[in-house]
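[recover] target loaded
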């Protein structure tokens, strides 16, 4: 038997022989290992002998009862197992990457979050992965969490609130936004740096439906009556109604652009709850499919 030769080791050892060696040790007999790997016993014996020749030492102690690893064989066993496991891990990751080129991702969020925070992410992902179907559900904040928990959505993006039950979800802080008051330029609050929720309740309120639950909770906490004059889905419509003098609105700052702020004033809402931390949620005990994992990675890459 020759000496250990590093060059021969690198050039001549193949993954199948390493896997065969693992099978021989696990089965305790070369014949059973050959059957397990679907090769002839003589071929298995020759491969193990070649492996020992390359290593320069006997790797198996042979007896009438079978084989067990020698001291050197135990070392080979440890490294062979690591190598085979690493290759299997590589195969799985590459397969997942390839599989991630097509499939479906179901996302639940609210319009007040989708427009400022998700639109560019969704369009960029759709451009890079044209075979992936992006199924976006526009729902209320509380329903986002419920959809993820039920498995109806792979990923939820929501504004975290104390009353929301997020047990069983894995959440990642994603963005920060705040609610601001929108009033006409001629309004008495227009030049104020801040205004409280209670002060606004004396006005005609134009409420965004996606934020209705948050307003009801805030009104109860402040001891004031919340009775909106208008309830709308569109932030743009809310701003137009303010501009036309029908009342005041409370909107996420991220939704506002320079264009829709013409002839209206944006005022900071002087409430702790008005600062919203946007979170990304997935189910803690349910793995994402490859395409959803890809999208989540994109979404949280700079978090």
């Amino acid at each position: 038997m020759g000496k250990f030769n590093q060059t021969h080791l690198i050039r001549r050892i193949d993954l199948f022989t390493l896997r065969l060696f693992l099978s021989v040790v696990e089965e305790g007999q070369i014949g059973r290992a050959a059957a397990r790997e679907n090769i002839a016993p003589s071929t298995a014996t020759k491969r193990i002998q070649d492996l020992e020749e390359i290593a320069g030492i006997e790797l198996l102690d042979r007896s009438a009862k079978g084989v067990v690893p020698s001291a050197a064989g135990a070392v080979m066993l440890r490294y062979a197992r690591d190598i085979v496991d690493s290759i299997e891990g590589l195969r799985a990751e590459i397969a997942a990457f390839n599989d991630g080129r097509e499939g479906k991702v179901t996302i639940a969020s609210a319009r007040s979050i989708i427009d400022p925070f998700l639109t560019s992410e969704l369009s960029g992902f759709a451009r890079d992965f044209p075979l992936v179907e992006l199924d976006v559900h526009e729902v209320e904040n509380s329903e986002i969490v419920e959809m993820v928990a039920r498995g109806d959505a792979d990923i939820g993006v929501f504004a975290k609130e104390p009353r929301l039950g997020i047990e069983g979800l894995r959440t990642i802080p994603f963005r920060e936004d705040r609610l601001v008051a929108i009033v006409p330029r001629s309004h008495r609050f227009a030049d104020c740096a801040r205004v409280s929720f209670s002060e606004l309740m004396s006005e005609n309120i134009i409420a965004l439906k996606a934020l209705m639950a948050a307003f009801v909770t805030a009104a109860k906490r402040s001891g004031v009556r919340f009775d909106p004059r208008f309830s709308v889905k569109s932030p743009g419509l809310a701003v137009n109604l303010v501009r036309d003098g029908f009342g005041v609105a409370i909107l996420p700052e991220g939704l506002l652009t320079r264009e829709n702020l013409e002839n209206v004033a944006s005022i900071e809402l002087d409430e702790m709850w008005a600062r919203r931390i946007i979170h990304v949620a997935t189910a803690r005990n349910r793995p994402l499919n490859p395409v959803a994992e890809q999208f989540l990675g994109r979404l949280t890459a700079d978090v």
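[recover] notes: The mean pLDDT is 88.
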